[in-house]
Write a structure and sequence with these properties.
The structure holds 2 protein chains of 2 kinds. Chain A is of the alpha/beta class. Helix content of chain A is about 35%, strand content about 25%. Chain A has 11 helices and 11 strands. In chain A, strands 5-6-7-3-8-9 form a 6-stranded mixed beta sheet, sandwiched between helices. Chain B contains 14 helices and no strands. Classes of the chains: A alpha/beta, B mainly alpha. At the A-B interface, helix 2, strand 5, helix 3, helix 5 and helix 7 of A face helix 9 and helix 10 of B.
């Protein structure tokens, strides 16, 4: 089976800094891969390289994409940025319809089909009736869903999520990730996400890749990758791992408890 | 989360922003009112219906007796009509250029002079006036030509310098400010050395819609057509740029190329407007924002409506400029700010729309 996304020997240099060094990563169709790693490890840069937004050495192959033009890539790969730019005064309907631009080009008017798809996506994300509101006026959780709606309107095979839960409370974090998981199953979406919350990363997604110092240090199922040793080594964090039927739970330990010999 | 299969009912209500017949009619009505007022009001009052008949008479294949004397017909056709048309063209071009700059730079304060057009045109005009190359009268006088050249050079230098400094729009804006400051300093120096030309240069800087027959409107027309055609074609692309270059690129666009095209088109039109009518401030900022407050923020409606309302605003401002202290004329730049500022504050107060 050919992977939906395959990255080989990816090197990216930004402003003289070698940000990614020989990154290898693959995701098969319908798979959810979470990329975790300390701040500055190059997670966002990896997503930007997948979007064709930074110059790179090495190889990035997206299944079914041979056209090198940006619009062709945008039909295959959709992106939810960590801090999306909220355009002043733009209506939610117009914002979600931006996701249809890769399909019709920027000079053509949207079709009835575009409007139908955008309306469906809004309904799917519980934003029905929000079309005439301005994106600015939405709450944090609604905004995040509007951004997600725009990405889903692209009807791409691959969805890249950069810290999709950062701005959200626990309930909304769960909502967004559950939704992505449901859509992934419905549409065989391939999902590549960066996440800071390791427990969430373990719960959602099939595999985890640890990105550290520009390299993929470890990759595999959550229970194999999220070990006390790995987290200590790559995050410099002291944690306990609690086994739960749904996956490992990562619990930070305090210095005091460590001194008491409360280490696993 | 609801099932997409049962969401079909919502598809009918999802409407994209765009130019609605009602807002288009409002813009056309504003332009029509301005044109009628501009043609009928003046030292000689001429009845509106006779003006309309006289204009119809001018159309090929139509012969209508408007009942106007030859002298009045000449006032309408030879004096007022070219001036009204020039006002429409200059106002529309400056407004649509301002709207384009605001969209391309994602900056509500951007105006057509952001990349140094005013300073470049000012220096060009100052040099031409102080070297006695021309007196600013007539289209092919050295003053408008020097202003046009100065405007285009300053935009080009700003663009090149901005891209040398980095890829962000901020670096482009900063380069424009640097270029404008440098050129303004040069202009001040030339001015100091030739203080006898002060009055003439000052009059040019404050702007005017003055015509001698049809040569000014004829010169302005092709630039107006090119500018409006290009930026209207890119109206949807400007809406995508509103989410920033990175996300626009992720949606398949080439933001820098789009910005280059629209900024060059807007600059060309603004440079032409400045060279025929001097520096008329305020219009490029106030008209687009008024349109946003009244009708919405999408460039699909802001750009075409800026053309109509910008033209109307300039014709009315020119009417005020030539009648308020008649027979003396006020500089139109004074009128646009004097009338425009209170009006805009009123619109700001009454509109509940979020525009920026």
């Amino acid at each position: 089976m050919t992977p939906a996304v395959r990255v080989q020997h990816l090197d990216v240099t930004l402003d003289g800094t070698h940000v990614l060094r020989g990154v290898d990563l693959a995701a098969s169709t319908g798979e959810w891969v979470n990329i975790i790693g300390p701040n500055g490890a190059g997670k966002t840069t990896l997503l930007r390289a997948l979007l064709g937004l930074v110059a790179f050495d090495g190889e990035i192959a997206i299944e079914g994409l041979s056209d090198r033009r940006r619009s062709a890539r945008a039909r295959k790969v959709a992106y939810v940025p960590q801090t999306p730019v909220i355009p002043p005064g733009m209506r939610v309907a117009d914002y979600v319809l931006l996701g249809r631009i890769p399909h019709r080009g920027v000079f053509a008017a949207e079709t009835a089909n575009d409007r139908r798809i955008a309306a469906e996506v809004l309904a799917r994300l519980d934003l029905e009736g929000f079309g005439d509101r301005s994106v600015q006026s939405l709450s944090g959780g609604e905004r995040q869903r509007a951004v997600m709606a725009r990405a889903l309107a692209q009807q791409a095979d691959v969805l890249l999520l950069d810290e999709p839960t950062t701005a959200l409370d626990l309930g909304h974090q769960q909502d967004v990730l559950e939704l992505v998981d449901a859509l992934r199953r419905e549409r065989s979406l391939t999902v590549i996400a960066t996440l800071h919350d390791l427990t969430l990363a373990a719960r959602y997604g099939d595999r985890i890749a640890i990105l550290a110092r520009g390299r993929v240090a470890e990759t595999g199922p959550p229970a194999e990758v999220l070990t006390v040793q790995n987290i200590s080594e790559y995050f410099g964090a002291s944690v306990r791992i609690v086994d739960d039927p749904e996956g490992p739970v990562i619990v930070p330990t305090t210095a005091a408890s460590a001194q008491n010999g409360d280490q696993p | 989360m609801s099932d997409p299969q049962h969401s079909g009912g919502s598809s009918a209500v999802l409407q994209a922003s765009g130019l609605r017949p009602r807002s288009l009619m409002a813009g056309l009505a504003a332009a029509a009112v301005a044109v009628v007022a501009g043609l009928t009001i003046g030292p000689v009052d001429i009845a509106a219906h006779r003006v309309a008949l006289q204009l119809l008479d001018g159309l090929p294949g139509l012969t209508i007796d408007s009942g106007l004397s030859d002298a009045h017909a000449a006032i309408v056709e030879q004096i007022r009509l070219p001036r009204v048309v020039l006002g429409l063209l200059v106002g529309a071009t400056l407004s649509v250029s301002g709207a384009t700059y605001q969209g391309a730079f994602r900056n509500p304060l951007a105006d057509p002079y952001l990349l140094g057009i005013a300073a470049g045109a000012g220096l060009g005009a100052t040099i031409a006036i102080t070297s006695n190359l021309g007196d600013g009268a007539g289209v092919f006088d050295a003053v408008p030509l020097a202003a046009f050249a100065g405007a285009l050079i300053s935009v080009t230098v700003s663009y090149v310098a901005g891209h040398l400094g980095g890829r962000s729009t901020a670096s482009l804006i900063l380069a424009g400010i640097a270029v404008a400051s440098f050129l303004t300093a040069c202009q001040t120096y030339v001015l100091q050395a030739n203080s006898d030309a002060f009055r003439q240069i000052f009059a040019w800087i404050l702007g005017r819609i003055a015509t001698s027959g049809w040569s000014e409107p004829a010169l302005m027309l092709p630039y107006f057509v090119v500018t409006v055609a290009v930026v209207l074609r890119y109206r949807r692309a400007l809406d995508v740029l509103a989410v920033g270059d990175e996300e626009a690129a992720a949606l398949g666009l080439e933001p820098r190329r789009i910005r280059l095209v629209v900024v060059l088109a807007a600059s060309l039109g603004a440079a032409a407007a400045v060279s025929v009518s001097g520096l008329i401030g305020f219009v490029g900022i106030i008209v687009p924002h008024t349109v946003r407050l009244a009708f919405g923020s999408s460039n699909r409606l802001v750009l075409p409506l800026s053309v109509l309302f910008g033209g109307a605003f300039m014709v009315l401002a020119d009417l005020a400029a030539r009648t308020a202290l008649a027979p003396a004329e006020l500089p139109i730049g004074v009128v646009t700010a004097f009338l425009g500022a209170p009006f805009f504050v009123l619109v700001l107060r009454t509109s509940r729309r979020e525009i920026w």
